[in-house]
């Protein structure tokens, strides 16, 4: 491979990939946690933002994963900025 091409490719990939935390505004306020009661003392925690546009974006994390992973917050921030409902 031409060394100039390898250098330009590496530079391009560095400039186009940003860490998720850089996409979260400093003034971000999370939506309060709500709970869905399943009965028998079981419940599911979720955060829901009501936007004006459809479809609702639904993020389902892995089993026992945190609801505050940067990826989930970035999706919520994007949905809120663009008026979409979001559940995570």
Give structural notes.
By secondary structure, the protein is of the alpha+beta class. It has one domain (19-87). The protein contains two helices and five strands. The chain has helices at 3-16, 70-82, and strands spanning 34-39, 42-46, 48-49, 53-58, 84-87. The protein has a three-stranded mixed sheet, covered by helices on one side. Strands 1-2 form a two-stranded antiparallel ribbon. Strand 1 (34-39) and strand 2 form a beta hairpin. The N and C termini lie far apart (44 Å). The model is unreliable at 5-15 (pLDDT under 50).
Summarize the model shown.
The chain is of the alpha+beta class and 88 residues long.
Uncertain runs are 5-15
Beta fraction: 25-35%
Structural class: alpha+beta
Helix content: 25-40%
Question: Distance between termini?
Answer: 44 Å
Q: How many E strands? A: 5
Largest sheet composition: 3 strands, mixed
Gyration radius from CA atoms, angstroms:
18 Å
Describe the SSE topology.
Elements: H1 3-16, E1 34-39, E2 42-46, E3 48-49, E4 53-58, H2 70-82, E5 84-87
Parallel strand pairs: 4-5
Antiparallel strand pairs: 1-2, 3-5
């Amino acid at each position: 491979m031409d060394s100039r091409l390898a250098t330009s490719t590496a530079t391009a990939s560095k400039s186009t990939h940003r860490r998720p935390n850089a996409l979260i505004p400093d003034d971000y306020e999370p939506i309060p946690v709500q709970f869905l009661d399943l009965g028998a003392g079981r419940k599911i925690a979720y955060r829901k933002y009501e936007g004006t546009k459809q479809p609702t974006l639904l993020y389902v994390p892995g089993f026992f994963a945190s609801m505050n992973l940067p990826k989930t917050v970035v999706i919520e921030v994007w949905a809120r900025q663009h008026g979409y409902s979001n559940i995570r």
